[in-house]
Hints:
236 residues
Amino acid sequence: xxxxxxxxxxxxxxxxxxxxxxxxxxxxxxxxxxxxxxxxxxxxxxxxxxxxxxxxxxxxxxxxxxxxxxxxxxxxxxxxxxxxxxxxxxxxxxxxxxxxxxxxxxxxxxxxxxxxxxxxxxxxxxxxxxxxxxxxxxxxxxxxxxxxxxxxxxxxxxxxxxxxxxxxxxxxxxxxxxxxxxxxxxxxxxxxxxxxxxxxxxxxxxxxxxxxxxxxxxxxxxxxxxxxxxxxxxxx
Amino acid sequence: xxxxxxxxxxxxxxxxxxxxxxxxxxxxxxxxxxxxxxxxxxxxxxxxxxxxxxxxxxxxxxxxxxxxxxxxxxxxxxxxxxxxxxxxxxxxxxxxxxxxxxxxxxxxxxxxxxxxxxxxxxxxxxxxxxxxxxxxxxxxxxxxxxxxxxxxxxxxxxxxxxxxxxxxxxxxxxxxxxxxxxxxxxxxxxxxxxxxxxxxxxxxxxxxxxxxxxxxxxxxxxxxxxxxxxxxxxxx
DNA sequence: GTCTATACCGTGATAGAC
DNA sequence: GTCTATCACGGTATAGAC
Lengths: 236, 236
């Protein structure tokens, strides 16, 4: 009998009631612990035992809930992917349904600001999730998870970009998104490298600053693409 | 006695001669095998035993040469970092010492083309190395290896950029490099994600295409930064 | 000096008892 | 829903072969 196993004090005593407490369920505790560990050490760098210990539950519980370590990882990744997709989709809809015509900047913001919000959230779980996405995105073996979880909505964003960049060829647009995606995920990784490189002038974990620069950088890049494409269009 | 243990046929018979054969040393075989495995599965996803087996050597040999698994990883990472740094430094020197004034494009090319060359090399080891760098760069725990191996030269490149972008503030410049770095390493990762997203229109492993787009995208982005900074400078 | 065989000991995943 | 026993596997040290 583990002495520290009861973070829900009120739930058990009157056995008629169910889950009135707002304490996180043990399932969520496992997800949170796994998220924190995976985000720092990767899939193979974490053991189920570590997850269980960090969550304060028995070793066997993660497997009970999620079938396998892989299942746990998928659950961790999927959980907040839903949240991010919802927020991005709502933001995009707001832009596209607005009275005013959508602009390049408004679309980029709809894509990026929800990530910024996560990165800056009080709940450290969101920051951990950002790191996790960064790893998955450049991992090779795990990259298919990006496709599964995000591509449907990303294609909508690319459609939106196509509308405000009418002269840009599709291939350019896809490569442009690729560049944006790389910069965005590196920002999400928050590795502290730029801190060192800039001698403290820039800070990885200053979300406000990081994502504002990300937006203005890519605003310039995409606008330049459009300008150049239009010029060629005229000339040709 | 392993029957398949002799990839150097001529070396041993006349014992007077030393290493005339151009066959790779066993040390290099271990490095190559480790590189291939690490680049796909990460540090913790690979066991020393797998490395040994892939290299066709005894389990203890990697540790004999490199002290520990970590030592092996460091050696793998450092080996081609030297090559890349040399090529980049030579390219940068050519640009800066030229009669013609350096341009934004020439500097970006000096930075990026050596990577493109590696990515497109016939030796698959170079491609594996590209993937490895991509992982390390967005890993959190391993990112310090980037600093150790690359920052000295990267600061030289940032200096060069500062010269051709005289109105851009330092902070902007560092964030710009950050964005470039993210896009570049995602390109190096070659995950095939853009293939899927673009429905086959773009291909991760078409190095020619990928890096040309990378260059023109960032040419536009940095030039826009300079233009905007100059405009503000005039106005203010 | 280069390399192999093997043993050690901690750790991990998982199945099945409770 | 929890605990535990099992058993395989991992990194590395060591003894010695060539």
